[in-house]
C-alpha cells in the first residue's frame, strides 16, 4: 500500500511532490522520501511522517522533475536507509510491489561490484538499471539509452511493480512502468504526473491515462509516450475524472468497505509476501523474536482479542492445536483483564488488534508481563501502542482500512496466524516438509482464488437482495468454519442492522433450533473437509424446520444442491485454508444486504473503527 508520485513540468517540483505525498497518507506508511533532478539527483528521505521529510528539505531545493514515495515496509524494517528513493550512480528509483527474484539478481550484482546499502528488494532495480545503462559499476559511458535500459531491466525482474525513475544523464525525462501495481498518468498544462493513486494529483488535474500491465511510459514536458516491453508505441485514451477527493480515494467504489473487500486479493498476498518458501516448507518471520528452543518450550498459547480480531483468534486456536500441537485458549480482552489466568514462562500470549490501540487488548497484554511470559502482537498499524508492549510484533501489512467493518484486516490476521502455526509446527516437528509445502503452495493460490470469488459477486448480490428484508439471520459452521460463522453474523449485524447469530453446528439441538422456523434464512458454511457430512446433517435438521438455507460450498460440490435453497461457491483449497475464501463470500453478502437496505455502510451507527476506551 505504498504511495508513489512523479512530476515533470515547469514548476518547482519539491513542493508539488510533498503536496501529492500528503494526499497519499491515508494509504499508510512508515517513511517518506523524494528525489529532485536538477543537473544531478538530490535525494532526501527519512523514517516517520511527511512532516519529518519537510524538515530536512533545503529551502533552495530547485528542479522541475522529481519522484517521491511513502513506504510501508515489506522487505527490511522501517528505517531511513530502507526508505525510497533508492539510487545507483546517477539513477534514482521509487517502486511499489514485490520483486520476487531479487536475491539472485542482488548476488550477481554484488559480484559485479555494486554496493547494496539497504535490505529492500527495490534497490535491485536501481543497480540493475544502472548496469543495463552503463555496463558496469564504474563506467561513465552509456551502452544503451535510458528507456532501453529500463525495458531490459523489466524483462529480467519477476514480481509486481509500479516504478518511476529519473537519471541525471537524461535530464529532461522521467520513466515509469507498471506490472500488477496501479499506476496512473495525470495530464496537466505542460506538466505530467505519475502516481499510484489518482488522489495524489487530483487537485492539480483530472485528466488521466490509466497505465496497463507491462506498459512503459516516457514522460517529458512536451508529452508522454507509451510503449510495450518490445518497444512498440501504444495509443492511449485520456479519461477525465469527475470524482471528488473522497470518491477518488474510493477508487470508483461506492463505499470504502467494498473497495477494501476487493483489495484482499492484494492484501493477502502482501501479508505473506517474502515470508514463505514452498521449496523447503519454511516460514521466515524475522519479526518473531523467539528461538526454535523457545517455540518447543511453549506449553500453552493464550490469544487475547476483541470483536473481529477475536474471531480471527478462534481460527488461530484450531490452527495452533491442529497444526502445531499446542493447547490454545482464546479470551476476550475485556474479560481477560478481570480474570485470574493460570500463566507462566511457558505460556505464549498473542494479542490481535487491527489498530494496535484497542484499550481492553492493550490492558490485557500489559497484565501478561507479571507472568513473565513471551508476548506477540499482531497488528496493522506501525508504531501503535501495542508495538511497545509486546516482545515481538508482526504487522499484517493490509494497508489502511477506512470502513468501520473490518474486512481485509481480518483476512490478513488469518494469514498471519497461518504463518505462525506453520512456523511453530516446523520448529516442533509436528508436520514434515511435504505437509508444510502443500500448505504454503495452496496459501500462495489464495489471492487468485479470492479474485475468482470477486469476479462472481453478482450471484452473491442477488442472494443478498432476496433476503435483505428479513428480521433474523443465522449462521452455522463446524470446526474451522465455526469462527467464520461468528464473523459472518458479526459483519451482517454491524452494517445491515439485522439481528444475526452464529452457532457451531453441533449446538443447534441445544437451543438455537427453537429460533428457526418457516422462511428463516440460515447460512451454512459447508466447504469440503472432515466435518462435511456433519454439516450436511445440520442442514437437513434446519430444512426440516422449513428454513431457507444458503450454503457456502466448493465450486465442484453438486451434492449440496439437493439440500439447500441457494449455493454461494468458493474455489477448492486445502481444508485448513478454506476460511479465507468463505470469509470473502460472507463479507460480500453482508455488504450487499446493507446496500439493499440503504444502510450507512462505512460508518454504521454507534460503532467506531478503533475502540480506544474501555
Features:
Glutamine Phosphoribosylpyrophosphate, subunit 1, domain 1; Rossmann fold; 3 domains; 614 residues; 8-stranded antiparallel sheet; single chain; alpha/beta; 7-stranded antiparallel sheet
Structure summary:
The chain has 614 residues and is α/β, with parallel strands linked by helices. It is built from 18 helices and 27 strands.
List the helices and strands and how they pair.
Layout: E1 3-8, H1 13-23, E2 31-37, E3 41-47, H2 50-56, E4 65-71, E5 86-88, E6 91-96, H3 102-111, H4 122-134, H5 146-156, E7 161-167, E8 174-179, E9 184-187, E10 192-195, E11 207-210, E12 215-220, E13 223-228, E14 233-234, E15 239-240, H6 245-249, H7 256-262, H8 264-272, E16 276-277, E17 282-283, H9 292-296, E18 300-305, H10 307-322, E19 327-332, H11 333-336, E20 347-353, H12 359-367, E21 374-379, E22 392-395, H13 408-427, H14 433-455, H15 457-466, E23 472-477, H16 481-496, E24 499-504, E25 521-525, H17 532-544, E26 548-554, E27 566-570, H18 578-597
Parallel strand pairs: 18-19, 18-20, 20-21, 21-22, 23-24, 23-25, 25-26, 26-27
Antiparallel strand pairs: 1-4, 1-10, 2-3, 2-4, 5-6, 6-7, 7-8, 8-12, 9-10, 9-11, 11-15, 12-13, 13-14, 16-17
Helix pairs in contact: 3-4, 4-5, 8-13, 8-14, 10-13, 10-16, 14-18, 15-18, 16-18
Overall body shape: globular
**What number of domains?**
3
Identify low-pLDDT runs: none
What is the oligomeric state here? single chain
How many β strands by DSSP? 27
Mean pLDDT: 91
**How is the largest sheet built, in terms of strand order?**
3-2-4-1-10-9-11-15
**What class would the helix/strand composition place it in?**
alpha/beta
- What gyration radius follows from the Cα positions, in whole Å? 26 Å
CATH topology label of the largest domain: Glutamine Phosphoribosylpyrophosphate, subunit 1, domain 1
End-to-end separation: 31 Å
User: What is the tally of helical segments?
Assistant: 18
Profile the largest sheet: 8 strands, antiparallel
Name the CATH superfamily assignment of the largest domain.
Aminohydrolase, N-terminal nucleophile (Ntn) domain
Q: Look at the structure and give the CATH class of the largest domain.
A: Alpha Beta
The fraction of residues in strands falls at 15-25%
Helical residue percent band: 25-40%
CATH architectural designation of the largest domain: 4-Layer Sandwich
